[in-house]
Amino acid sequence: MPGVYVRYAAFLTAFFKSAVYRVHRRNKRKKNIITVVLAVMLVICLIPATALAADTVTANGGDRGQGIGGGARGDGGTVTISGGNVFATGDYFDIGYGFGSSGGGTLGISGTAAVFLRKDNCITPTAPAHTHYDITGAAGGSVYGVPSSWTGDFGAYLRLYTLSYNANNGSGTVPESVTQQIGTTASVYNGRGLSKTNNTFSGWNMAADGSGTAYAAGSTFSFPENTTLYAQWAVSKPPVSKVTALTLYTGVKKTLTPLVTGGTWTWDSSFLNVTQNSDGSVLIKGLREGNTTVHYTYGYGDENYAVTILAETLPQTGQDFTWMYGLIVLAGCALIGAVALGVNKMRKKRV
Question: CA 288, CA 308: separation in Å to the nearest integer?
Answer without folding.
Answer: 10
